[in-house]
Specification:
The structure is a single chain. Helix 1 packs across helix 4, helix 3 packs across helix 5 (about 90-105) and helix 5 (about 90-105) packs antiparallel against helix 6. The protein is globular and about 40 Å long. It folds into two domains: about 1-55; about 55-124, AhpD-like. The chain has six helices and no strands. The chain is about 85% helix and about 0% strand.
């Protein structure tokens, strides 16, 4: 069962961030602490994110909304990239930011706009 969660977690992370991104994220967290890295992969992504009750895009949107409300720009950047990889459009992400501005406040929305702009800026 644990190996199944591990495989599900890595597969889901690969959907979000591609093979290279999933591997890099796993190595980063496991480098901090192997047990913590395994816990996040297996329980968060292999367990929670893999549950059948919500579509993956909905989970991604909910995660972005929570990160916006909490003012967690660095992690939001990672999840905006994942959302775009899932096919969530820039227009949809903008609507999430605008919607959240009324619930979490304008400062969190402005921070999210900065983060969104960083992620979506044309590559030079």
């Amino acid at each position: 069962m644990a190996d199944d969660k591990h495989e599900k977690g890595m597969a889901l992370r690969t959907q979000l961030w591609g093979e290279r991104g999933a591997k890099a994220g796993n190595e980063f967290l496991s480098g901090f602490d192997p047990d913590f890295g395994k816990f996040l992969n297996d329980e968060l992504f292999g367990g929670i994110w893999s549950r059948p009750g919500l579509p993956l895009k909905a989970r991604s949107m909910i995660t972005m909304a929570a990160l916006i409300a909490l003012g967690r720009a660095a992690e939001l950047k990672v999840h905006i990239r994942g959302a775009l990889n899932l096919g969530i459009t820039q227009a949809e992400i903008k609507e999430i930011i605008i919607h959240l501005s009324q619930y979490s406040g304008v400062p969190t929305a402005v921070e999210a706009i900065r983060t969104f702009s960083e992620v979506t800026a044309p590559k030079k």
